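In the design runs reported in the main text, the only information available to the sequence generator was the tokenized backbone. The following block is the verbatim input for one such run; it is reproduced so that readers can re-run the procedure and compare outputs position by position.
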């Protein structure tokens, strides 16, 4: 195993770790805990899936009318955390949010299974549901309306990108003497400048 603390490229290092997790995690190596804050300042966290990452940031998709979507859009800030138990590693990312382009959202939406696309229409995410059959019925109504081929993307469904301000890497160490490295972004743009700092475990 290479010494990750020698890396000066947090985005490249994240990609390496994510690829290694793909080979070692049983399910959803791209699962992440996404934290937002409501209007009272109360934090909220849930598991979502990372659906894209590059030099611009880390992308997830959601219903903008959901609790998650409303909280994210209200503050346009978020934090995400990965925990790969099989590798004894964590990554934390904090930053501002930006909405993905219509083209990006359409491309990802159209890559989903037809039932998932219909579900984006049928589910009134985060709102009360009297019984599951109501959701099943709503899904059938959407299939009757759109079929299973050219299903349009709902206007309230899109993606958000976390533009990282800090990225912290954590590797489990013996006797809890873990390795922690945090990268802090000093400049935006196509070629971000990062500073690196080792932290006490």
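Verbatim output:
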């Amino acid at each position: 195993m290479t010494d990750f603390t020698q890396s000066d490229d947090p985005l490249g290092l994240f990609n390496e770790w994510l690829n290694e997790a793909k080979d070692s995690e049983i399910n959803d190596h791209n699962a992440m805990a996404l934290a937002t804050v409501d209007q009272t300042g109360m934090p909220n966290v849930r598991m979502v899936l990372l659906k894209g990452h590059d030099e611009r940031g880390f992308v997830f998709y959601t219903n903008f009318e959901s609790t998650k979507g409303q909280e994210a859009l209200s503050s346009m800030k978020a934090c995400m955390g990965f925990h790969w138990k099989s590798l004894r590693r964590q990554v934390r990312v904090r930053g501002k949010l930006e909405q993905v382009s219509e083209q990006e959202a359409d491309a990802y939406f159209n890559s989903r299974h037809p039932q998932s696309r219909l579900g984006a229409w049928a589910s009134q995410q985060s709102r009360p549901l009297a019984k599951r059959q109501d959701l099943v019925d709503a899904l059938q109504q959407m299939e009757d309306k759109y079929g299973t081929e050219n299903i349009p993307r709902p206007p309230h469904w899109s993606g958000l990108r976390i533009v990282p301000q800090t990225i912290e890497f954590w590797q489990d160490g013996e006797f809890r003497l873990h390795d922690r490295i945090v990268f802090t972004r000093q400049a935006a743009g196509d070629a971000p400048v990062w500073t690196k700092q080792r932290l006490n475990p």
